[in-house]
Every structure is written in C-alpha cells, then in structure tokens.
Amino acid sequence: MSDKKKELKPNTYKFDTLSLHAGYQPHKNAGSRQVPIYQTTSYLFDDVDHAAALFNLERGGHIYSRISNPTVGVLEERVASLEGGTAALATSSGMSAIFLTVMTLCEAGDHLVVSSQLYGGTVNLFRLTLPKFGIKCTFVKPRDTEGFKKAIQKNTKGIFGELVGNPGNEIMNMPEIAKIAHDAGIPLMVDATYQTPYLCKPFEHGADIVIHSLTKWMAGHGSSMAGILVEGGKFDWMQNDKFPTMTKPYEGYHGLSFAEEFGPTAFTMKARAEGMRDFGPCLSPQNAWNVLQGIETLSVRMKKHCSNAEEMVKYLSNHESVAWVSHPSVPDHPDHELAKKLLPNGRGSMIAFGIKGGKDAGVAFINNVKLASHLANVGDTRTLVIHPASGTHSQMDEATLKFAGLSHDMIRLSVGIEDIDDIKNDFEIGFRAARKPRLVSNQ
Amino acid sequence: MKFKVNNNEVFASTGGRPFDKKKPLIIFVHGSGLTHMTWVLQTRYFAFHGYNALAVDLPGHGLSSGESLKSIEEMADWVNDVIDAVGHKEASLVGHSQGCLVTIECTSRYPEKIKSLSLMGGAGAIPMNPELLSLAENNDPKAVDLMMDWAHGPAGHFGGHPVPGLYHINTGTMLAKSRTIQNTLGVDFRACDNYKNGFDAAKKIKCPTLSILATDDKMCPVKEGKKLASLIDGSQIDIIDNCGHMMLLEEADRVLTVLKKFITTNYPPLSS
C-alpha cells in the first residue's frame, strides 16, 4: 500500500455537470427535478419592509419578471458557471444583449472600437443606430490587431468583436486585443455565440464581458430566441474616471455606487437595475426553459457539430464545384494556429465556402438543396445554408459588403448533427443544380 | 467611505447610505482573503434601517491600502482603531470565519466598546490544512479554488444565489483573487493558524452574542461553533440546514433575518 500523500484537488463541478445542474436546487422548489417554469409577472412581498428591501437592492429576490424571474435566473447562473463568470443577465435576444451591454457601458459622446466582421444586424446597430444615441464607433478589421490600438480615442469606452467573425471566420487575437484594451483602461466585450463555452471560455483569454445569442448553439434546436451577457468580474471599473456611471453615486438607487458595492458583479447589477428597468428586453420564462433544455446536451451536441464540420471541410475542399473553403481547421486558414490556441475543443461548425459560378451558382445551390434549410439562423441541430450577399447582409451596399469581407460567391454553412452522408448527398444535389445554369449560359 | 487608520487609507462600504455619526455603528469583518463585498446582502439592510453599517476591507485587502496585518491580535486592535477613527465610542461587531476570531479577540480586549457580537461560521480556533496554507503562501491560485470548494456546502455548489444571475463560487473566487493571493489569503491563513487565544477570549465576553452555524460547514463545523458558544455567557445559536461556510451568500436571507432580530433587539437602531 502506497503511503504517498494524496494531492489536494478542488472538487467543484465540471463542465458537463454544471450544464445539467448549475443554478438550481430542487429542495428549494418543491423537490421538482426539472427547473419549474415560473409563468408569472410578479411576486408577493412578505410585508412593506420586504418590498422596500427588494426595491432597494438590500436583499436578493424577485419583484417583476421584466427585471428578473426564477426560471430565467437559473439560466443566468448556469451560463455564468459554464463561462467561468461571476454573473449573467439573460435577454430576449442576442441583439438586445449587445444593446444592453453598450447602453450599460456608454453614454452620449462616447466611442467604441469595433471589429468589422460581424453579423449584419450587429453592424447596423453599431454603424447606424448607436450614432443616434450619440455613441460613435470605429470599425477595424479583426486581424488588424494594431489597428484596434490606433483606433482608441480619449472617449473610447470599450472594444467589441465577435471571436470568430460572421460570416468569414476571421478570428480576433483575443489575448492581444484584451491587452490593448486593458492598457487603455477599457473592457473587451466579445460575442462568442459561435463558440459557446464548450469551445472557448473568453474570460481565460482576457475578455471582460461575453455575449451570446443563446438562440444558436446554446439552445441548439432552433426553437427559441434568447440572449445573455456574462461578466468576468476581473475588470476594475475604479482604475480611472472613464466609467462614472459605474463608480459615482447613482441617483436611481439612493446614491449607490455599483463598483464599490458589487465589485466583480457590478456591471450585471447595473445592467439589470437600470437597463432591464428602463429598456425591458426581458426573456420569457418559457424560452429560458427551452434554452436550459438545450444547454443540458451542449457538450454532446458540440462534439457532433464539430466532427461533422470537419468532415464537411474535407468534402468541400476536394469538391470540383467549390472555389475556396474557410474554416479555422483548414491548415491554410490565416488564423489556423490561433484557432488551435483559442478553440482547443473544436473549431466550430460554421463554414464559409465559395461556389464556382458566382452569385447565380450560389442561388441555384441554395434553391435546390433539400435537407439543408435555407434560413437566417445558425447553430440549429439541423444543417442550415444561406447566401449572405442576398440574405443576412443584403442591407449593405457594395462598399460595406467588401469591407465586411463578403463576396457574391460565398455560401454560409452551419453544419448540423444529421448523419454526415446525408448532408453530403444533399450538397451533391445542390452542386449539380449549381453547375447547370453555367452550362446553359456557356452554350 | 475612506478614512485613515495608522496613516493607511481604509475603505469601508456604508451600504449605500452616507455615514451619519448619530446612528449606532455596526462593523462587519470579512473572512480570509475576502473583502467588504461578501456582506452586500446584509449591510444594505442595516444601512437603510437606522444604522451606520461599515463593511471594512482589512488593510491590504479589497480597496484598503497598507500591508495585511499578520496576527489576529493586530486585526482586533485595528477594528478598535476603526471605531475611534470614525468618531464612535461603541459598536456592534459582526464577523465571518476569520472575522469571528478577530471580533472575539476585539470584544475581549475592548469589552466597554462592543455592545453585541454576531459570529458566522465561527470557531475558537481555525487551524489550517498545511498544504492549503503552503499553496496560499506560495501564491498558488489553487488555494483559492480549494477554499471555494470547501467553503460552499453541497447545495451551494449548485449555485442558487439569492440575487438573480449571480454565481456564488466564481464571485468568491474573483474576490479572493482581486489582490495578490500570498499577500492576502496567505497572510490571513497564517494568522488564523497561529491564533491560539480564541477560547480564552470567548470566556471574557459578556455582551450579547449570536453564533450562526451551518450543518454543511466543513471549515468551521457546527460542533466547533457550539464549543465556542458554550464558553460565552448567554450566547444564542442559530443553525442553518443544507448550508456551508459561506452562509452569508448561500443563505443570505436567513442570515439577514436572524441577524436583524438579534441586532435590533440588543443594539437598537436610531429611530427615524
């Protein structure tokens, strides 16, 4: 028998266990094994003193489901635990999570540095809508790390980007850009929808706020809209005078200083107390529950998404109808090495490829596949395809399309978890149809 | 608010209300390596109900400057200095874990000043696991991870924070890692390990005392808390089921309810 002393190891729950259990204690909910759906607008106060205490943030609890809801609260804690964050706030969609993040951070007159490779809706928020609130943005290409530094101004309050750009799969050098942000005393906000915490935990690479459209892989089944912002808890809001709404007494809560009082959860507390109160983009308890069902199988699904995606990359790379393939697993992808570091568990299931024959071939392909669904979503269990130039990014003019790294031959593929042979067979149908118009036009 | 003690700047949360010398003073003393923020679900209530609720950051912790104090006795004297520094003649003390050792020692040294004492997860001695102590003194983040594991009960490991959206264990981890681990947790653990006067100090305490204990507390088990309470005349005990050492977060509402009844009875607020 060995007398070697046993090494002490923390026994906190691991990822797969947290996916199923975090944020919920059955014994506090009538023993219900499933998370109950609290389909209610509001919550009884014990007495007047209790009501005042809740409104005053003197004690935890729920008042009104626009601000918080017990079912939604389980989802928030679960995602915070999976990301390694201190706190989270769920919203009605990914876009509302981005908007709430920006409005919690910024005031009129502020500036943000933003990656140019974003979902089309996000581009329009930063380019067209936020300026109406007096918040201006400078766009920088995600691989231009120095460009982020140069774009920072005196009134810059943060850097925002998608970890893997939509739809071109460009990867932000998160550790380096985080350092640039932190040297300037501002936070890095990362939309990590494509990765989920199973593939990457951005807080481990320097991000301060992580945002997800939960509608995508986290929920995973294409059934429910939801978004979330998660706080890392490391950013020091009091290090400079850039964030007075975080550090100075806030009139809306009897002179409360969020940073002093709540420290590593200050941003989330402010986003909830102010943002949910004033803007109200709350998540319905039913949708929160649907997302929780998806998260229970997150790691199982992500493994299959990634293995199918790698198979599709091989298939497309060798296909006569395909001009190019962009996926971080491809060795000649410009960010291949960075992807190995940031995405060790898999490179994700989003593939962009160029179809020979340009726009007409792309349209024919999309119109003829039968199994793959043509729609404006990603991260479903089912395989999805879209032609960005005529779909998600169709509101952009030619110059903006070019700046966003889009071409007319590009098809965006979100690989599902169907049998891989069935996906390939379906694509053969699409490619055959895509070749036909060219044959016709060549005659 | 900020003020000076021994020429070092001290930060103390006032629970969101301005400090008012007319109101009775409650001082909340945090546990090893932590900060004032552990008390957020207790202090704000008292601050809005007739008290000055001061959740201090011990020297070298949180937002307070200076170096961490190396012994429980020094920390006890420092708490007394805080009472003087804010211009009060007396106070009620509330401690958690290491904060219990500090407040027991302070109450025994300055019995005329301390009007009530509330202990959460307290014991007369907190000997440290040698490996954990060594990890903390060597600045190893594993010390924080182990502390967070042991400090939360089985239920607390699942989360279920009373404030929607907050996740206990990660929040505690961030607090404990907010300053250099060896300078906060390392020094604090050594101070706890060295402190041997807890039981003798307890015997000298004559003010009303409350011990809040938790059935799943692995760091200061119920039997240790009861042993300590048995040495204090008239000490009250409240035991929380399904809860670990971080009861002030894991069962914040229950703790506040018990604390509120005890303090308002034994050290009444300034009536409005």
CATH evolutionary superfamily of chain B? Alpha/Beta hydrolase fold, catalytic domain
Number of strands of chain A: 12
Radius of gyration of chain A: 23 Å
Distance between the termini of chain B: 23 Å
* Strand composition percent of chain A: 5-15%
| CATH level-3 fold name of chain B | Rossmann fold
Can you tell me about this structure?
The complex is a heterodimer of chains A (443) and B (272). Chain A is built from 17 helices and twelve strands. With 443 residues, chain A is of the alpha/beta class. Chain A folds into two domains: 15-294, Type I PLP-dependent aspartate aminotransferase-like (Major domain) (Aspartate Aminotransferase, domain 2), CATH 3.40.640.10; 299-442, Alpha-Beta Complex (Aspartate Aminotransferase, domain 1), CATH 3.90.1150.10. In chain A, strands 1-7-6-5-4-2-3 form a seven-stranded mixed β-sheet, with helices on both faces. In chain A, α1 packs antiparallel against α3. The longest helix of chain A has 23 residues, at 420-442. Chain A is globular, with a radius of gyration of 23 Å. The model of chain A has no long low-confidence stretch (mean pLDDT 93). With 272 residues, chain B is an alpha/beta fold. Chain B has a single domain, classed as Rossmann fold (3-Layer(aba) Sandwich), CATH 3.40.50.1820. Helices cover 40% and strands 16% of the residues of chain B. Chain B is built from eleven helices and eight strands. An eight-stranded mixed β-sheet of chain B has the order 1-2-4-3-5-6-7-8, sandwiched between helices. The mean pLDDT of chain B is 96.
